[in-house]
Amino acid sequence: MEPIQFNLKERKYKVNLPESLGFGKIFTDHMFEMDYNEKNGWHNPIIRPVDELPVHPASMFIHYGQAVFEGLKAFKQDSGDIVIFRPDKHFERLNNSSRRICIPEIDINFAIEALKELINVDKDWIPIKHGEALYIRPFIFGSDPFLGVKPAKEYKFILLLSPVGAYYPEGFKPVKILVTDEYVRAAPKGLGECKTPANYAASLLAGQEAIKRGFTQVLWLDGVYQKYIEEVGTMNIFINFKDEVVTPKLNGTILPGVTRRSVIDILKEWKMNIVEREISIDEVVEAYDTGKLLGLFGTGTAAIISSVGWLTYKNKQMVFNNGKPGELDLKLFNELTSIHYGEKKDVHGWLMPVEQKEVVFS
Q1: Other residues' Cβ atoms within 10 Å of the Cβ of residue 93
Q2: What domains does the chain contain, in order, with CATH numbers?
Q3: By the 8 A CB rule, do 120 and 145 touch?
Q4: Helix, strand, coil abundance in the chain, percent, nearest 5
Q5: Which pLDDT tens digit goes with each residue over 138-177?
Q6: Side-chain-side CA neighbours of residue 249 (13 Å)
């Protein structure tokens, strides 16, 4: 692989982040970009100023959706160290998504090194308050101009950075979830396990209708029987029964979340009975009615852990812990964030350090 080129923006002033960062609204000065064609493979790696992309109106990803993306975070710890949470697993998932829609894979080790270099360049943009982080958005899209259904021959791989605020700026609050059987997000042997724009476009209408009814997100059922629980719009789901914690098993229609995998490992270390299996919405309702259901929580990069305070299915409204966070939910949230910020030792090797080097801006 060619060495990374650097074209850095002149920085005249110190980076001053606003008090309220929000999520996905602010971007750092630089991005990493790399091209692909059949002759050269992945080439032209460069870190350059963030700018508008020159995109031909016939670019294939616009018309045929050949694109994949990821979402992960870097943190500035109390010690001043900068770490990335499980980037290897995120880039592995990016390659899994790419294979499914005929996008050439990237070299994971090179992608991680490129990410480290980019973070070092824009390290002054990393927020330092607990709950805040540097959100990382890798994405790939077919870029050659052609009208016709086939895999693209040219691609762009980009790394974009965004400082983000705490997902719960007012504290850890439960969310309201609507179970939908009016729409289907994914079907077996489709794209459900891929992080591709098509999956998220398919969720928008149901999500908007849920918001209009006062809910935060939608809990999706399987696409065949409309019976088995799969995932929420932006997170995997866990059901906390009195005798076991259950999360739907990966079957090709569920995104294999990196936070999901981390939570499973933690629960096993805590000697809890964590099970990956099919679980129907009827089983959840019955357990609620018989007092065997303690609550639900979601896992994902953005929120880390989301406690579910209310779950509605048809005319059945279920309330957990009087709308307050569940004990296990909060314990998991504190465990993961303590690892992120260096308050607890990373015994799993989940954190990848970023070497902080001096950067000369032109």
Answers
A1: 21
A2: 5-168+348-354 (3.30.470.10), 175-324 (3.20.10.10)
A3: no
A4: 25, 30, 45
A5: 999 999 999 999 999 999 999 999 999 987 766 688 999 9
A6: 6
